[in-house]
Amino acid sequence: MNRVAVIRDGVVDAVIAAPEWANELEFARWVATMTEGPFRGCVLRVLRGDEVAASGHLVQPDGSFAAPPTPLETTLDAINAQTAARIAAGFEFRGARVSLSIESQTTISNAYTIRASLPYPIPWSTLDDKAFVTIASAADVEALYAAATTAVLLARTEGNARKAAAIAESSKR
């Protein structure tokens, strides 16, 4: 007999034996949305073979099931998001806020690599693209590279320290 996951708002509410009518739809992934009874508004989905679902599991975008995140996972995800937001906010360089997007980090790194052969001066746009910082020489590229690298490393180092503290605190429980 097939098993059916009862899904309410993207979370597995229960796993039950499939009703008789669901056995006819053995190969269907989504069986039905219930309109009455204790599972009204829930989606019933036939579980295939060794597919595992348990109460509280989350339905993933691909239709698979995953256990809900632990408090530690939630904390680490929040720290990662804060670190990413800090990097996305850019950094100060000569009084202007400059982007630290992946594209900008790559461009800064590439400019540093070929700094001796670049045609100066170079107008470098600010984070909001409303102004420019003038890069007048290879020394300016070196300063830009050092400032960008320092900003990213500082954000990551502080984020990693917060994650280490969260992990240590979690292991005490």
Written description of the protein model:
The protein has about 170 residues and is an alpha+beta fold. The protein has two domains: about 5-65, no CATH class; about 70-170, no CATH class. It has four helices and ten strands; from the N terminus they run ββαββββαββαββα. Helix 2 packs antiparallel against helix 4 (about 140-170) and helix 3 packs across helix 4 (about 140-170). The chain is elongated, with a radius of gyration of 26 Å.
Rounded to the nearest angstrom, the radius of gyration is: 26 Å
Q: Enumerate the spans where pLDDT stays under 50 for 5 or more consecutive residues.
A: none
What is the 3D shape?
elongated
Number of domains: 2
Helix content: 25-40%
Strands, count: 10
Order of helices and strands: EEHEEEEHEEHEEH
Distance between the termini: 41 Å
What is the residue-averaged pLDDT? 85
SS field, number of helical segments: 4
Sheet of most strands: 4 strands, antiparallel
Strand content: 15-25%
Structural class: alpha+beta
Main β-sheet, spatial strand arrangement: 2-1-4-3
Please name the defining characteristics of this protein.
173 residues; alpha+beta; 2 domains; two-stranded antiparallel ribbon; 10 strands; 39% helix; 23% strand
In short, what is this structure?
By secondary structure, this protein is of the alpha+beta class. It is 39% helix and 23% strand.
